[in-house]
Amino acid sequence: MNAKDRIKDWQDESKADLESAIVYIERSRVIHGLFLCHLVIEKSLKAIIVSISGKAAPKSHDIFQLSKNANFTFTDKDNLFINSLIKYKIQGRYPDDSNDIPSKEKSETILKQTKILMQKLHKMI
Q1: DSSP classification of residue 124
Q2: CB-based contacts of 108: which residues, under 8 Å, 6+ apart?
Q3: Gap between the terminal Cα atoms of the chain
Q4: Which tens digit of pLDDT belongs to each residue from 99-125?
């Protein structure tokens, strides 16, 4: 697979994950939906990395490291947002009994922020 195809795959996957996140949150599977929001940003960054390097993206889930690899600097507002997503990345992989599930309103805000940041990242290619 060439770099152009890999970039398209990462972008398409990030869009599909956003659509799935919306469905999960609508069906009250909030943690699963927010976990997918993390993947949306992760995959969008991987598309940038492939566009820069022409090589396969690293097998990493660390958004901050991926942003460095992508030569992308988050705004302070984005940093706060990403830090909030990290919690759901962990909860999605390692559920605990804290029942710390955000409200529907907060979840919808996170969805909107995810979509905005994804679009910003996609435009960089």
Answers
A1: T
A2: 25
A3: 18
A4: 678 898 999 999 999 999 999 999 999
